[in-house]
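re: the backbone from monday

yeah here it is again, tokenized this time
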């Protein structure tokens, strides 16, 4: 996928905000005046937010996996240290017993050969007692750290799995709503094409970003499909434009500033918009699902002029984009090098 601009709404939002998006009512609940085109545009942005947050969650999961692997290595070292401590403790206790630590004090007096021997034995016993107590305390501290580390790792994994599940559910909910709205949008577009009459412009909330460049790609994120001059059974001669594979309802933007000279809703191109640009060139945007501009309207670079679809003679959801030297079919030139000459690489 290629993308020349990141929309601000793609910045990850808080999980609570995503919950609001997931449960936000559909167009019918917002009022009858909310057009299906506007609903698709809104859901498209909601899905972008959810996808961005889901991707952030996935990256968090990868980071947590790395932390968990490091924690496992640390826990393995701690378990090994505890095993060594237990071995040392057993060795100290055995030595302690051999040195008389297991005998009552009275027996030690009876078996002592002289006072000095008794004192030396008692000192050895005390040292052994201290060693045993120290080893026990060290072992208990290590076991406490191990238990705490295991509990922390388990808690972090549980929290991450819960959050990932919530994000995935929100993403699925929004995408399901979007698919349903896209289907309704395309059905209405097909009806307009069949009737050969456009329903009129639907005003969409424009993106807040102002472009500093004179030219941009006609869609933000896409995959290139059929190119200029390619052959196929769907075209009488050769393909006259560049196709951008995008889902139904994707915002389509003016490649450059100009004036809308045609909005039509019939024929092989389905719903289409043609814009005249300074310098004698025209750009065409075809197979749309809706339009957001009127004929004669002036548009700026990057302004949303409609939404992609699969109207007319179309093999699937995509935007058919042409650059022409006249507003009419038959005067197209290859749009890829034309855009490249204006600083837009697709």
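seq for it, each position gets an aa:
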């Amino acid at each position: 996928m290629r993308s020349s601009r990141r929309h601000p709404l793609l910045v990850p939002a808080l999980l609570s905000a995503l919950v609001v998006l997931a449960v936000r009512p559909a167009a019918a609940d917002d009022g009858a005046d909310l057009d299906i085109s506007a609903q698709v545009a809104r859901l498209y942005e909601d899905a972008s937010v959810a996808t961005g947050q889901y991707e952030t969650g996935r990256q968090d999961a990868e980071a947590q996996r790395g932390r968990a692997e490091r924690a496992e290595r640390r826990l393995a070292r701690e378990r090994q240290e505890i095993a060594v401590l237990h071995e040392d403790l057993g060795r100290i206790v055995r030595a302690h017993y051999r040195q008389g630590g297991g005998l009552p004090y009275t027996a030690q007096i009876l078996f002592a050969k002289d006072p000095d021997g008794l004192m030396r034995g008692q000192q050895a016993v005390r040292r052994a007692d201290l060693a045993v107590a120290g080893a026990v305390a060290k072992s208990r501290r290590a076991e406490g750290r191990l238990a705490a580390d295991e509990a922390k790792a388990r808690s972090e994994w549980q929290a991450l799995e819960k959050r990932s599940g919530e994000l995935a559910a929100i993403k699925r909910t929004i995408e399901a709503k979007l698919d349903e709205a896209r289907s309704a949008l395309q059905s209405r577009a097909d009806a307009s094409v069949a009737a050969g009459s456009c329903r009129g412009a639907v005003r969409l909330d424009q993106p807040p970003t102002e472009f500093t460049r004179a030219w941009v790609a006609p869609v933000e994120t896409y995959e290139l499909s059929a190119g200029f001059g390619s052959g196929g059974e769907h075209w009488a001669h050769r393909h006259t434009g560049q196709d951008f594979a995008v889902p139904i309802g994707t915002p389509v933007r003016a490649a450059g500033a100009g004036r809308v000279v045609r909005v039509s809703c019939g024929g092989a191109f389905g719903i289409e918009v043609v814009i005249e640009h300074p310098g004698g060139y025209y750009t065409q945007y075809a197979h749309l699902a809706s339009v957001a501009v009127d004929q004669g309207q002036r548009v700026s670079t990057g302004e949303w002029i409609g939404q992609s679809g699969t109207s007319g003679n179309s093999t699937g959801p995509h935007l058919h984009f042409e650059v022409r030297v006249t507003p009419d079919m038959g005067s197209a030139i290859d749009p890829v090098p034309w855009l490249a000459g204006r600083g837009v690489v697709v």
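DSSP finds six helices and eleven strands in the chain. Residues 72 and 150 are 9 Å apart (CA to CA).
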